[in-house]
Amino acid sequence: MAEVRMRNLVKTYPGGSVRATDEVTLDVADGEFMVLLGPSGCGKTTLLRMVAGLEMPDDGQVVIGSRDVTYLPPRDRNLSMVFQSYAVFPHKRVRANIAFGLRMRRVDRAKAKRKVDWAAELLQLTPYLDRYPSQLSGGQRQRVAVARAIVMDADVLLMDEPLSNLDALLRLSFRAELKRLVGEIGTTTIYVTHDQVEALSLGDRVAVMREGRIVQCDNPISVYDVPASEFVGGFLGNPPMNFLTGTLAGTNGQVQVDLGSQESLPAPARLAEFRGKPVRVGVRAEAIGVSREPRDDAARCVVEVFEPLGASVLITATLAGQVIKVQAPASFRAEPGEELWLVLSQDSLRWYDPDSGVALIAA
Amino acid sequence: MSTVATPPAAAPTPEFTELPPVDRAPLRRLRRRRVLLQVACVLVTLFMGVPLYLITLAAFSSRETLNKFPKSLWPTELSTDTLKAFLSSTGVLPAFLNSIVIGLGSLVLALLIGAPAGYAIARFLFRGREPYQLFLLLTRALPIVVLSVPLSQLFLRAGVYDTVLAVVLVHAGLSLPTTILITASVFVAVPRDVEEAAQLFGCTRFEAFRRVVVPMALPGIAAAAIFTFVLSWNEVLAAAVLTLNNRTLPAQVLVSLSDSPIAYRFAGGFALVVPALLFILLMRRYLLNMWGSTLR
């Protein structure tokens, strides 16, 4: 086990003009579960591959434990990895697949067998040890890949979208299983995914990436609740965070945001210095209160679409001409065209600069 | 204000009308096509099989039976006399041995050079990759007759003329383009992930190639092997020009064919066909699949 330190990692693929990762610096603590999250092409897989040694950085440094591994071949880094496509060896039986890394390291036969049996037990593969991967289902193949990775006692466990090839139901159950497993063995883990739910559910910390840079790295609750930028708020959450455009106004101690059509919301006093400037207000769909009766502290909206989702209902409405999605309790009913009053409490509102998309911070 | 949305008015149920009769014409067409396909398969098989059968029959007939008329199409009077006579005639057994050694030798040589080349074409995007593949095929554009004369001179000077090695070199050279292109197409199908996994779990690049990529590419390697062996087994011209005493079987048969009795020719034909067939049969299991399913 060890911590991983990445420093100013730069990688441009041959023939490419854009940097796949652009001076990325990230520390993963010993035993931490770090999730790299981002849309495809954001550089998360490139970053993982540079830690793995499958890709050489143009500049920067990778340190595992206290050892510089920047340009070491993969086999000398004491890592193990789970691939998106499982990457099990089709010509080897399950037992040989799991034991592959141990055999390459010339681990004593009896010890290797003990480890294989332990991993097979843990991943419920014991009945399949003598089968070939082609005789297994996708979920079982991914279990083999995970077993192969955990028997290594590696310093760092790397996972590259290990759940994305599984069907939805299997993904859900395997996700919980993976969390339990990694928690038990306690290895430092770097996990790449584009699935925000996976990231939130698994990570001790989530690093959200965009265009080769880390835009926010924090624990899942903070990343979800206090997005550092509009991009993060829009990428995490289903539905994504709502953003309303307005202008900050007010006199003396009072600050408010005018959304147009005479609708306004109170804003925190710390934003007083931005008075007169445009602003983007972010709010989560489930943080909005809904009322049928007119209220002083609520904004009027008109229902456009009403969608029952089982556990809740999703209302798409227009507030001062801007689209807003509201999540309401499952028993709530509304008709298109109906008027509703939305309670947007101040502590659920996030404030962003409309040009850069970055959260507004008073100097 | 009602809170429960009223369901949309139910669509009027369609009247219970009579359905049109089942149209069986497409099914009949499908069946007819299937039968035609089977017939075509049988015809093609016969086209290859009947000559083989006749040669075998003739090779196992005595000289008298062969000259009888009308000939029987069924194996009524089997004898191994002709075959024995053929095999014991001078030069045949050594030539037979030469053929096998040369076939296997050129197979090994072609794979040793060709498989890594195929891997390079499959994995690396190097400058001139496309022209290189075309250039490979160009080596087959020169007729062997044209190649043979300068090659004989070269081999004479190098002191390898009239040796098994000389023919192995030529046959391996002739089969290299196909070996490279066939193996390249299989290496492309081996996922890169699997190779990377091998490297991560302790292999060097070469070990990953040997332990993971080659086993996964076995079907293609087998195909290339068959191709090389059969090419070498059947090749006459170069083998005849480049050797005097160390003839391969086809070269030997070719030289002695014109002045031999008809029975001898059938025996020679049989001896030429059988080893190649046996080799293909042996390699077949690698060609089809290894682990209870096709690759991937």
Present the secondary structure layout.
The complex is a heterodimer of chains A (about 375) and B (about 300).
Chain A: E1 4-11, E2 21-28, E3 33-37, H1 44-52, E4 59-64, E5 67-68, E6 79-82, H2 94-104, H3 109-122, H4 138-150, E7 156-160, H5 168-185, E8 188-193, H6 196-202, E9 205-210, E10 213-218, H7 220-225, H8 230-235, E11 242-249, E12 255-260, E13 263-267, E14 278-283, E15 289-291, E16 298-308, E17 312-319, E18 322-329, E19 339-343, E20 350-352
Parallel strand pairs in A: 3-8, 3-9, 6-7, 7-8
Antiparallel strand pairs in A: 1-2, 1-4, 4-5, 9-10, 11-12, 11-14, 12-13, 14-20, 15-19, 16-17, 16-19, 17-18
Helix pairs in contact in A: 2-3, 2-4, 3-4
Chain B: H1 25-59, H2 63-67, H3 81-88, H4 92-123, H5 129-138, H6 144-158, H7 164-189, H8 192-200, H9 205-216, H10 218-234, H11 237-242, H12 249-257, H13 262-288
Helix pairs in contact in B: 1-13, 3-13, 4-7, 4-10, 4-12, 7-10, 8-9, 10-13, 12-13
